[in-house]
Hints:
Number of strands: 12
Strand content: 15-25%
Amino acid sequence: xxxxxxxxxxxxxxxxxxxxxxxxxxxxxxxxxxxxxxxxxxxxxxxxxxxxxxxxxxxxxxxxxxxxxxxxxxxxxxxxxxxxxxxxxxxxxxxxxxxxxxxxxxxxxxxxxxxxxxxxxxxxxxxxxxxxxxxxxxxxxxxxxxxxxxxxxxxxxxxxxxxxxxxxxxxxxxxxxxxxxxxxxxxxxxxxxxxxxxxxxxxxxxxxxxxxxxxxxxxxxxxxxxxxxxxxxxxxxxxxxxxxxxxxxxxxxxxxxxxxxxxxxxxxxxxxxxxxxxxxxxxxxxxxxxxxxxxxxxxxxxxxxxxxxxxxxx
Length: 314
């Protein structure tokens, strides 16, 4: 297996590691060359202890899982929260909970510790790569409904970054409400469809702001206000996806993140909106929930590494 100085144990099979770095948890999986998931694990993220502590925690988790699986590391992929410079393997911008994270050479330091090449992507880009792997669709929109709303885009089978690395960021497109967004602007998709916003919108209706999961439970029990909040979220989501599909001729949108676990509550409004506001092309737009759960980001990070490092991973 790969050690801290990059040596390997002869005769052990090769595998790749995918690492999902978030603000509260770091998760990782080890995947064999044929795509079989060998093992997975997680550890708390020391986000307030700085970039080096975060990188060392990720490396320690990866090393432990490689030891458990009895494999040698050939490449690692990282999906990280924030605005990622995927070419340099650094973070350009991140939330306040990440201390000394912006500018830290994450990929370089991980590569040094693990003794293998490392590729880093934004976590939503990695999510979409993980969900799209194995599908026949060459053009796919990805939407993550979590604390905020993130987006990603695959065009002609390739992840689209755009000239500034911001392609697919559908969460901050305007026109869905007259509410103030977390970014300071008004009316963005995130004001209705994020987990945070679902709780806030329920609070505005009832005077009792709750976690989105609690709102979902109340909706399933027949609470009219909770049902209305999820209906607003589902309609806004569908309209955003339909707009993207009209502009880009994308026939598939995959929706992940914590809010997507309440797909039963979102789906009726999504389907209704697609009946009244479908893309003008006449080509059906499919909006579907993600299937790979908590593995999606790590799997997509591996996919990003394999695409970027064909001479090393084949």
